[in-house]
Specification:
It is built from two helices and ten strands, in the order E-E-H-E-E-E-E-H-E-E-E-E. The chain is of the alpha+beta class and 142 residues long. The strands form two sheets. Strands 5-6-3-4-10-9 form a six-stranded mixed beta sheet.
Length: 142
């Protein structure tokens, strides 16, 4: 076959995988929560009962220097300087996430995901502010 008679066969292009759906607080800022994490948090909030919020933050410690914290606290424990984010799952009641201003400096823009995998499952943090992360995914350095 010569160069003049060669034909090209169109190749099927594979569309890129869709980005996971994420949710941000009502103001569109703060901590991004993926759909699997949103469902898990909504289920956990239902188990906690009325009047609880999810507090996320950071503390010194962990393999890389700082570690993530997540805990349910009574709404009365929200401090006046806490950032408050309201999340509204499609099929569950809305819930609130609070974060102190110092922690927010380190985790602003972080994505919270959830996996049901037997190994490495649970909540996973993807932090754009981290310069390094630990293999377990629960600690980081900036």
């Amino acid at each position: 076959m010569t160069a003049e008679t060669a034909t090209t066969v169109p190749t099927a292009s594979v569309p890129p995988a869709p980005a996971p759906t994420t949710h941000t607080g009502r103001d569109g800022k703060g901590i991004q929560v993926t759909e699997p994490a949103m469902k898990q948090l909504a289920a956990l909030m239902a188990q906690q009962g009325v009047g609880k919020v999810l507090r996320v933050g950071v503390r010194s410690g962990g393999c890389s220097g700082m570690s993530y914290t997540m805990d349910f606290v009574a709404a009365e424990e929200i401090r006046s300087d806490d950032e408050r984010y309201t999340y509204e799952p499609a099929d569950a009641p809305s819930f609130e996430v609070v974060c102190d201003p110092k922690s927010l400096l380190y985790i602003y823009g972080m994505q919270l995901d959830f996996s049901t995998a037997l190994i490495g499952g649970g909540f996973n943090f993807t932090n754009p502010n981290a310069s390094q992360t630990c293999g377990c995914g629960s600690s980081f350095a900036v």
